[in-house]
Amino acid sequence: MAQTREAAIVGIHEYPLRVAPGVSALQIKAASASKALEDAGLSWQDVDAVFDTGSHQNIGGLGISEYLGMNPRLIDNTSVGGTSYEFQAHHASTMIASGKANVALLTYGSTAHSDRRAIGTAGATGQGSPTPFNNMEDPWGMTLISGYGMVKARHMHQYGTTNEQFAEISVATRYHAMRNPEAVKAMTALEFVGVNEITTQDVLDSRMIAWPLHLLECCMVSDGGGAVVIASKEVAKNCKKSPVWIIGGAEATKYRENGGDITVSAGAQSGPRAFEDAGVSPNEIDVLMAYDSFSITVMCMIEDLGFCKKGEGGDYVSQGILKFDQKGGPALNTDGGGLSSNHPGERGIFLLLEATRQMRGESTSQVDGAKLAVAVGNGGQLGARHATSPTILAAD
Amino acid sequence: MTLRPQPRFPEPDTEPFWEATKERNLVYQTCDNPDCTDKVIFYPRAHCNSCGGLKTTWNTSKGEGVVYTYSVVMQSRHPAFKDLGPYAVAYVDLDEGFRMMTNVINVDNPISDIQIGMRVKLVWQEQGEGEIALPMFEPA
């Protein structure tokens, strides 16, 4: 398929605080929207498409439109966990290309840290109306982290991937985090034991949360949020900064299946489709923003999107190519990722934000001459029902 | 002692499964549509998730299978699990062709005494008076 450049990211904002007591998720969304529109050089009433995941204080696209004070002609409430924002970017760019909207606003706000939500270790709450999957999963005490632990264990068994190899992902991510002042402030505010670069041995020596996942393979729980403004090419021409084009997107789902291969994510379906949509191939990508809820999530994204063959991710990440100043493959998670910068629950928006900064030349770990980036989110639970969506971005 | 999260009702898809556990039967469904290519249904549903057929048959499993994968929870903040010590959460592939979430128990060290691919058999763990018993697995 021939590449088209019909919609672009024209404005971004990342809410700076990772510990934000006394502020609501809605306020984070509104403040981020204001700054992102200012970044684009657009006004509040230019927005004609409002996107929302509905997970912030139970307000969806209708409620957030009223709260913000916007009168959209298009609302999208796509909510698929951490990758909701890649799904929404795909929908926004498609709707803009079809002429149904001109300026789309995606916002995120969360106070997961201040609410003291134990996202990874709490297990089932037993709240709300029962579902079949509640009834068939909750009694056995799977924590979210152990769900991902089951995928890592199977990956190690099936392909011989080692703990040292998984640790390379954490090491490269922290290397980037230490160059990002916002990430350093986050790790300090969240009282990380060591706010410093780490080695693979440090990862292996960190305590086990759910075997075989160590603490330093698990993302943090922070507050935070942000906003993304996506506009048509006509609007983009007059924005303050160079447009960052959305040239490809795709979506897929996968579930726990009888006899299925748990090591293969939905990205194995949506990855090739997104690259075909964009008319580019993995070996052309300069920056890979891959959802790092856990080390295993990144490993699966790298393989399933085709940066290497399935099962060879361990060797791939061990070549010393993940850092922004190393050659041989795309730089990984150059903002410090969920492991070391911020993870308020649904990190997908931050993948778009940092990929955009890279395409603008604004990253704190800027890849020289970066022209193409992939932001790939993974939402739900990798070892059970989940969704994977890559957004492929190009510099102007 | 805080109870584990219990299955909650009304939840009509999974209610027959939990009713069967009262007789210590581990049950699963198969699709009645002769043209269906993937007949085993699990978790329980009133429809076939492969072909959409609405006629299914309940069957009783022999309760034998292999560990597909597992993780050992070292830190749980849930009141029913936080003081258990390390415990194994697993997907077990039953010989009849369905994969279920469960625990593998009756091992000294869950990290080293369980292996992916090892044979396991069904064991029922009582949850206290009047509460359901949970199907779990132990080394065969």
From TrEMBL, chain A:
Gene Ontology MF terms: acyltransferase activity
Pfam families assigned to the protein according to its UniProt record, in alphabetical order: Thiolase_C_1 (PF22691)
InterPro entries hit by this protein: Thiolase-like, Thiolase_C_2
Gene3D superfamilies: 3.40.47.10
Signal peptide: none
Domain spans labelled Thiolase C-terminal: 257-385
Official protein name in the record: Thiolase C-terminal domain-containing protein
Species of origin: marine metagenome
UniProtKB/TrEMBL annotation, chain B:
Domain ChsH2 C-terminal OB-fold: start-end pairs: 58-125
InterPro entries found in the cross-reference section: ChsH2_C, ChsH2_Znr, NA-bd_OB-fold, Thioester_dehydratase-like
Protein name per the record: DUF35 domain-containing protein
Domain ChsH2 rubredoxin-like zinc ribbon stretches: 18-53
Xref: Pfam families: OB_ChsH2_C, zf-ChsH2
Organism encoding this protein: marine metagenome
